[in-house]
Write a structure and sequence with these properties.
The protein has 195 residues and is of the alpha+beta class. Helices cover 34% and strands 28% of the residues.
Length: 195
């Protein structure tokens, strides 16, 4: 039986295949290189571990924009623990965004059957708050109110539809006189400090 993270990852890979087939986006899973040692006597795996820190789970291109994201599944019902994402992954996503890419996390609440897209700067606000003595998790209620739910539409998990909506919202907002985007992509959102 597959664990929930593996099922979630497989669903995302299927969504990416659909995007590729339909010419919507080209996004692929980044493999993590592993070192494996074998028991020569029994020809079984003795030990396996990642050779190096991975960057993020998925990378690709959508409408000429680089896309990078980390995908995590949790069985928690009331929060997403910040420790689920490593600091080097946050740093990578922030650097990717600084270079003009679209960076986010896809978080599946497996026991609730819901997946949310959380932009990296939203997530990083919570990380900074935790470093200053704040809570070490993001409340589910905050995610539900301030992040975009990802649902099956064209693909099993149509996260590109969320990006399309965000791009459309940003274009409408910037077209209004005196308005400009407060971030590199998407809408202005309440920060962790607002709760």
């Amino acid at each position: 039986m597959m664990n929930t993270g593996a099922v979630f990852e497989e669903t995302l890979k299927n969504s990416c295949e659909y995007y590729k087939y339909r010419g919507i986006a080209l996004i692929h899973k980044i493999p993590t290189p592993w070192s494996v040692t074998y028991d020569k006597k029994n020809f079984r795996v003795k030990n396996a571990y990642p050779q190096e820190k991975s960057s993020v789970d998925f990378e690709g291109v959508w409408h000429g924009r680089s896309v990078a994201f980390e995908a995590k599944s949790t069985r928690e019902r009331k929060r997403f623990d910040l420790k689920n994402i490593q600091q080097h992954q946050i740093d990578y996503l922030l650097q990717h965004q600084d270079q003009g890419g679209i960076s986010f996390l896809l978080v599946e609440f497996s026991n609730l059957g819901e997946t949310y897209l959380i932009f990296v700067d939203q997530f990083n606000d919570w990380v900074q708050l935790a470093k200053n003595g704040g809570r070490r998790s993001i409340p589910y209620d905050w995610i539900q109110m301030n992040c975009c739910i990802v649902v099956p539409e064209r693909a099993p998990l149509d996260f590109i539809r969320v990006l399309e909506r965000e791009r459309s919202n940003e274009a409408k907002r910037i077209s209004e006189p005196g308005e400009k985007s407060t971030r590199k992509f998407g809408y202005p959102f309440p920060t962790a400090k607002d709760i």
